[in-house]
Amino acid sequence: MKITKIFTFDSSHMLNGHDGKCRNLHGHTYSLEITVSDGLIEAGAKAGMVMDFADLKTLVEQHIIEPFDHAFLYHGANARESQIAALLEGWQMKTLRLPRRTTAENLSVEIYGRLKAAGLPVCSVKLWETPASCAEYSEPP
Ligand SMILES: [Zn+2]
User: Fold this and answer.
1) Ligand 1 centroid, distance to 69 Cα (angstroms)
2) Phi and psi, residue 122, nearest 5°
3) Digit-coded pLDDT (tens) for 74-125
4) Of all residues in the chain, what percent carry a pLDDT higher than 90?
């Protein structure tokens, strides 16, 4: 059985070296679909549920929304993005250093890994960068 909950967050980023407009600093209102796969809970207050949607919300807000929302997401190995992050941090502005270039594809992998590490039985992360463009990362078979 699978359940899905949808979240939104706002972040700025850039793709240094991109051959189009995404090389510029810009932002997105991301829509994030988290799908969890597990058996149904058999007894007690949560009987008939894969997971309480309220518990899923708490976990995703703590591990994803809190660090990502209204932050400058940047690739820590990229010199130019790191320079911008250092400038922002000097002004006490929120940044989030990531180990990958901040494409929608890579962000979905990053979010998947963070939720898995937090103990969530996540099976798919779908990240919408615009209402028409998304990347999805699913559990390898
Ligand atoms: Zn973008």
Assistant:
1) 14
2) -70, 140
3) 999 999 999 999 999 999 999 999 999 999 999 999 999 999 999 999 999 9
4) 98
Q: Which residues contact 26 (CB under 8 A, 6 or more apart)?
A: 12, 13, 14
Does the annotation place 75 within a ligand binding site? no
Catalytic residue ranges? 22, 70, 129
CATH code assigned at 113: 3.30.479.10
Task: Name the token pair of 85.
Answer: 């992050």
Domain tally, the chain: 1
Domain residues for the domain of 102 are 2-138
**pLDDT at res. 140:** 75
Q: Give me ligand 1 centre to Cα 14, in Å.
A: 6
Pairwise CA distance, residues 5 & 114, whole Å:
16
Ligand 1 centroid to 13 CA: how many Å? 6
Q: Is 28 annotated as a binding residue?
A: yes
* 13 annotated to a ligand binding site: yes
